[in-house]
Give the backbone structure.
Amino acid sequence: MDLLSFIPDNVTEVLVKIVQFAELRRGILNGNIRGMDTPGYIPRDLPVIEFAELLHVAISEHLQHQRLLFRDTANMTFGDGGTMRIHPIADDHAAALLRTDPDEYLNLQINRLVENSLNGKVAQELIRRHSGMPCCLPNVDSGNAVTTDAFPEDLSSRPSATE
């Protein structure tokens, strides 16, 4: 499904990126819970602060120059047609908790999932209210859309989020 056909303006485009990011992050965080009993497992996360800074820069650019421009970062790249690639990063804090306090590690992952879900749902509701669409976007297969190799998979070919 072509997400850009649903994007009437820059506000919605930013919100769609937030929904995509939240859905992809949900898959990573779920994987952290599933993998916690695997010996040597290294928890991962998406670069949340990097994504927030990227959005801040894009919105500032829009306010100053009336154009929305997503600039590539160390772990995220943007391409033609609204494509977005995200490279997960090792989560050192979670890894330390997993080694020393598995219960606290699990609480951390659950709290992150709750916060992430709220972020995605707020963005979906804002899209619905702003664009008049009855619902948001179809699901992203986060297990296949985010990779750990040097060439993250293209997200534009994946549908996006609802829950």
User: Anything to note?
Assistant: Residues 4 and 81 are 7 Å apart (CA to CA). The helical segments are 10-34, 48-65, 92-100, 102-131, 142-145. Residues 3-145 form one domain.
